[in-house]
Write a structure and sequence with these properties.
The complex is a heterodimer of chains A (258) and B (267).
Chain A (H helix, E strand, L loop, with lengths): L1 H15 L2 H14 L1 H13 L2 E2 L2 E2 H21 L1 H4 L1 H6 L2 H7 L4 H8 L6 H17 L6 H29 L10 H10 L9 H9 L8 H7 L6 H11 L2 H14 L6
Antiparallel strand pairs in A: 1-2
Chain B lengths: L1 H14 L3 H28 L8 H13 L1 H4 L6 H9 L2 H6 L4 H30 L12 H32 L3 H14 L11 H7 L9 H7 L5 H31 L7
Helix pairs in contact in B: 1-7, 2-3, 2-7, 3-7, 7-8, 8-11, 8-12
Chain lengths: 258, 267
């Protein structure tokens, strides 16, 4: 843990070296998803609700997903940018050090500019919570926090799978964006509105709906099922297969020799 | 002219090598179009009369958008150009007996067209095989299809000329990041890439009519489904032509001024 803080402070100081660029990137990240926010606003002002979800309820989805992916991109960027690490031979160096591989990959890249998007998500989140009518109680607050944390875990897991696939090929891996960028883009709305089949896929294959749609139903009082309440916890289980895929990848690794 | 044509050919054949990336791109595009249509279906189920476009026309719009994405995505820039400006490689480029503007323009056109050539046909094919109303409709008439093609080409030129302005600003700011990210974010909404322009509020549409953004992907796709047709389409195409001339003329002038005071960075 102490070592992680070392990594963190190195990343912070390193990125603060170019102050203007850092703040500009931060502001840029803040702006990027603003258009997406406006597009929701315009669509939702034509009709007031979609599948029974109001504007502020949609915004809960939007902000939870955006917070999750921003946190994942900030702290697990090492996996997201893994192709470069393999190509540059940096991974060889990591393998000879007496620390866990995963830990070092995580520590090697912490991209703080992604927090710009996090701030925007938080602003929208506060607005959404303020305007939507949820009868708050302790359990619901816990579920809400778990939604964000498990969302971060699911996106991080997707990055790990991406990195593991890099051991085999670096070509055509663009398709992984379907789940990460796609999750961000289409997770702006509750996943239930895309139809039964897609919802099933996002529950059992790539569990994006587990941290967004089901707990939302519980928060809004539309469902009392224990399963829906606990679904963010199940989302964490996604990390187990991710870990094994990663292990297979590492075992398959042959250095590029550069 | 011949020089630029061969430059175009080199960039084109250089880009078209990346078949693996194109396969991934096609899968992504198909998925994206599909999800987008499912999303709008939920909206139309709530109240289909509230929306300014027929659902089937909207689906055609989405599929065309996915098929020709690489022609019109404003966020795609040739990173080599930014790098040249930053690290001084531009010095070599200036030493060539070529107009820098024309060369960049040709290079960008080639890259985008090569990507589109690889990607558009599979997407169009799959989209036209889908059942109504989810698929791509056949063009309404031969006439409107020809107008669509003309408008598609002019929209492409408009996007290219607009992107050139972003390259030129890098002569002043050096770091391309700030301008690029702002341009990307704003144009996604204003060109109708996120949601078609008719879905935007009226006051915004009125303003957009007087901007080049209206002449980009919005126009050809709407002409295709005859959302815009007749005199309105003819006027819109004249407007596209005007924007192409203004943007290219302005870009060339600005580039000349920028190059006068250019400082070659480093060695």
């Amino acid at each position: 843990m102490k070592l992680y803080f070392k990594y963190f402070s190195i990343a912070l100081r390193c990125q603060m070296q170019h102050k203007a660029s850092f703040w500009m990137s931060l502001a840029g990240q803040f702006l990027t998803s603003f258009s997406a926010f406006l597009s929701i606003y315009f669509l939702m002002s034509i009709i007031n609700s979609v599948n029974g979800f109001s504007f502020s309820e949609v915004l809960i989805c939007y902000s939870v997903v955006l917070m999750s992916i921003s946190l994942a991109e900030c702290f697990f960027r090492g996996f997201d940018a893994f192709a470069g690490m393999l190509g540059g031979g940096e991974f060889d160096r990591i393998m000879v050090r007496p620390r866990g591989l995963i830990f070092q990959v995580i520590g090697s890249k912490i991209d703080l500019t992604r927090l710009g998007r996090l701030f925007q998500a938080i602003a929208v989140f506060v607005y959404a919570l303020y305007t939507c009518e949820i009868a708050w109680e302790l359990e619901k607050v816990i579920v809400l926090v778990l939604m964000i944390l498990s969302g971060t875990a699911v996106f991080a897991g997707l990055f790990v799978i991406y990195a593991a696939l890099c051991f085999f090929t670096t070509e055509s891996l663009e398709f992984m964006n379907i789940f990460t960028d796609g999750g961000r883009e289409f997770g702006r709305y509750p996943f239930g509105i895309y139809g039964e089949d897609i919802l099933r896929f996002l529950t059992f294959c790539v569990p994006l709906a587990l941290f967004q749609y089901y707990p939302l139903l519980y928060l809004l009082g539309r469902s009392d099922l224990l399963l829906h309440k606990l679904s963010p916890i199940f989302a964490f289980l996604f990390l187990i297969p991710c870990y094994f895929i990663w292990r297979i990848g590492v075992r398959h690794y042959k250095s590029t020799g550069s | 002219m011949k020089k630029y044509v061969s430059f175009f050919k080199i960039s084109f054949s250089g880009t078209i090598q990346y078949r693996g990336a194109a396969v991934a791109g096609i899968i992504t595009q198909l998925f994206w179009g599909f999800m987008e249509i499912m999303l709008f279906r939920a909206f139309y189920e709530a109240d289909s009369s509230a929306f300014p476009m027929e659902f089937s026309a909207l689906c055609s719009y989405i599929w065309l958008q996915q098929a020709f994405l690489t022609l019109f995505m404003i966020w795609f820039f040739d990173l080599k150009i930014f790098k040249q400006i930053q690290d001084g490689g531009i010095g070599y480029e200036l030493a060539r007996p070529l107009e820098l503007y024309d060369m960049w323009f040709a290079g960008n056109a080639a890259q985008r067209m090569a990507k589109a050539t690889l990607r558009c046909f599979p997407v169009l094919l799959v989209a036209s095989l889908l059942p109504e109303p989810y698929g791509l409709l056949a063009p309404s008439s031969v006439g409107s299809f020809l107008v669509f093609l003309v408008s598609l080409f002019l929209a492409f030129l408009t996007v290219l000329a607009f992107c050139m302005l972003v390259y030129i600003t890098t002569f002043y700011t050096l770091s391309p990041y700030g301008v690029r990210i702002i341009v990307t974010s704003v144009t996604e909404l204003l060109t109708g890439a996120l949601i078609p322009i008719p879905f935007l509020p009226d006051w915004m549409q009125e303003i957009l009519r007087f901007t080049p953004f209206y002449s980009m992907q919005n126009l050809p796709y709407r002409i295709y489904s005859e959302d815009i047709w007749g005199t309105e389409a003819a006027l819109a195409i004249v407007l596209q032509l005007i924007w192409v001339f203004i943007l290219i003329g302005f870009g060339k002038l600005w580039m000349k001024r920028a190059l006068k005071r250019v400082v070659i960075q480093g060695g």
